[in-house]
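Q: Here's a chain of 165 amino acids. Please give me its 3D structure as tokens.
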Amino acid sequence: MARELSYVMVNPYTIYKSRTGGVLSRLLTRTALDLVGGIMFAPGKEFVDEFASAIVTAPDANAEDRQAKEAALLNPPAQTNYTPPRQLDPVVYYDDGSSLDTTSNIMTLSNGSQVDITTGLPYIDPKSIIEMANGAYLDTTNNILHEADGTQVDATTGLKVSTSA
């Protein structure tokens, strides 16, 4: 059985109007194709220009007629449909109030705590840390002093913080 690779280009307008699922489901129901993966990317102007010129100059039996029609469709104003109008937002927002910064892989939960999604560990912003010579450090976000032996002390009250449930 022959194995073939196909791709679908969905323009930003389709994504903006939340029609991507409809486009993909229509493709899969009308063909005998199986979806094995997906990648989303925003092409740059150079890529779009090269893609447009490759389509327009593709050999065909009715090449002149087809090229004229495609050239009309792919004039510079129409090419903006395949390039994002502005820089894409690197933050993904969720319904529960949490957000994911895709540039740093830091998930901010709705309760305000942060988790590094690559390690699964709580994230503490390095700007909020005051390090001390003995190995202890103060987390100024939560006012918690982390002593060198692992003990945590509330810097406001001076009480030890329990780390067990």
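Q: Can you summarize the key feature?
A: The chain has three domains: 12-82, 90-123, 125-165.
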